[in-house]
């Protein structure tokens, strides 16, 4: 059984379809060729500072926090990882626990990507030029002095 999420244009040429699986759920992604107009934006010029504790700080003073829903799900993730490690390898209960762990990982990934999409969409709609810094944030996380 397939559920349609999003609009699939009928009169457009389909280029390809990709079938994928994440955390026990199957997805079909269809690529179509379509011409879109890029809207003209007369917003200001800003710089974005990516951070470790805060997601991003914009030069006009706006601060984007990390989503709060992550903290609760990260606690659930730690508990489920402990639960999986206690299961016997190859057992059905371990397989079920791994699937639940994958679902938590997917939920965390979806929350992060949704929040980043909302922030970038806001910036793209309201600003005409956006400058980003080129820092290795994951490397900063590993260095305890910087985080």
Descriptive account of the structure:
Residues 30-143 form the Probable transposase IS891/IS1136/IS1341 domain. InterPro entries: Transposase (IPR001959). It comes from marine sediment metagenome. With 147 residues, the chain is an alpha+beta fold. Helix content is 40%, strand content 25%. The chain is built from three helices and six strands; from the N terminus they run E-E-E-E-E-H-H-E-H. Strands 5-4-3-6 form a four-stranded mixed β-sheet, covered by helices on one side. It has a two-stranded antiparallel sheet with strand order 1-2. Helix 1 (69-86) packs antiparallel against helix 2. It is flat and about 60 Å long. The N and C termini lie far apart (46 Å). 1% of the residues are buried.
């Amino acid at each position: 059984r397939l559920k349609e999420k999003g609009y699939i244009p009928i009169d457009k040429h389909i280029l390809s379809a990709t079938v994928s699986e994440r955390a026990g759920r199957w997805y079909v992604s269809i690529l179509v060729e379509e011409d879109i107009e890029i809207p003209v934006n007369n917003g200001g010029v800003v710089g974005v500072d990516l951070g470790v504790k805060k997601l991003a700080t914009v030069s006009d003073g706006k601060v984007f926090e990390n989503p709060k829903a992550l903290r609760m799900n990260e606690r659930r993730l730690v508990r489920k990882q402990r639960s999986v490690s206690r299961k016997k390898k190859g057992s059905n209960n371990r397989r079920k626990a791994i699937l639940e762990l994958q679902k938590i990982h997917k939920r965390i990934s979806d929350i992060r990507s949704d929040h980043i999409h909302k922030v970038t969409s806001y910036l793209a709609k309201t600003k005409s030029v956006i400058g980003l810094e080129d820092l290795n944030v994951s490397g900063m996380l590993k260095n305890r002095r910087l985080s």
